[in-house]
Amino acid sequence: MFSRKPYSDWVEHAGLIFFSGKTGANADGSIPANFPAQASNAMSNVSTALSNAGCEWRDVIKVTVFLTDMRDYDSFNTTYTEHLDGVFPARSCVAVVRLPRGAAVEIEVVARRTAAR
Predict the structure, then answer these.
(1) Which terminus has fewer CB within 10 Å in the chain: N or C?
(2) C-alpha span between 18 and 16 (Å, rounded)
(3) Which of 93, 110, 112, 113 is an active site residue?
(4) How confident is the model at residue 99 (pLDDT cuts 50, 70, 90)?
(5) Distant-in-sequence, close-in-space partners of 6: CB < 8 Å, separation ≥ 6
(6) For residues 66 and 96, is the Cβ–Cβ distance under 8 A?
(7) What secondary structure letter does DSSP report for 57?
(8) What's the whole-model pTM score?
(9) Helix (H, G, I), strand (E, B), or coil: what is residue 114?
(10) Is there a domain that residue 22 lies in?
(11) What would the pLDDT profile of 32-75 be if each residue is shown by its tens digit?
């Protein structure tokens, strides 16, 4: 196991910030058993990453969602809309065979750096 992550949480280039994917892991690294808890955690984990980079959800221009089971799509959309304020960035949602550590959802985003804060 790596003693530190072999990736960056985010990288900025030309005014855009590319964030690494965030799963629904709890703070201790454990993965909740049920999908709604994972989806909510994943959204919160993205929110934390955005905040750490000085951004908010309103700065996000692209979201990519990875689901291990497309039957969770409607459940994810419910959680997604609860975490955003009605302004939705462009989004893709794709099915994948597997995600790290048994996660059922992973979210990655691209945000733009805004000059005025």
Answers:
(1) N
(2) 6
(3) 93
(4) very high
(5) none
(6) yes
(7) G
(8) 0.90
(9) coil
(10) yes
(11) 999 999 999 999 999 999 999 999 999 999 999 999 999 999 99
Q: What is the CATH number of the domain that holds 101?
A: 3.30.1330.40
How many structural domains are present in the chain?
A: 1
**Phi and psi torsions of 92, nearest 5°:** -120, 150
Q: Which domain holds residue 81?
A: 10-112
Q: Three-state SS across 10-48?
A: EEEECCEEEECCEECCCCCCCCCCCHHHHHHHHHHHHHH
Q: Catalytic annotation on 93?
A: yes
Count Cβ atoms below 10 Å from residue 33 Cβ, excluding itself.
Answer: 9
> Looking at the domain assignment, is residue 68 inside a domain?
yes
DSSP state of 60: E
Q: With CA atoms as reference, report the closest residue to 19 among 117, 106, 85.
A: 106
pLDDT of residue 9: 87
Residue at 34 is within a domain: yes
Whether 50 is in a domain gets the answer yes
Are the C-beta atoms of residues 23 and 100 closer than 8 Å to each other?
yes
Instruction: Specify the pLDDT at position 3.
Output: 55
In total, the chain counts a number of residues equal to: 117
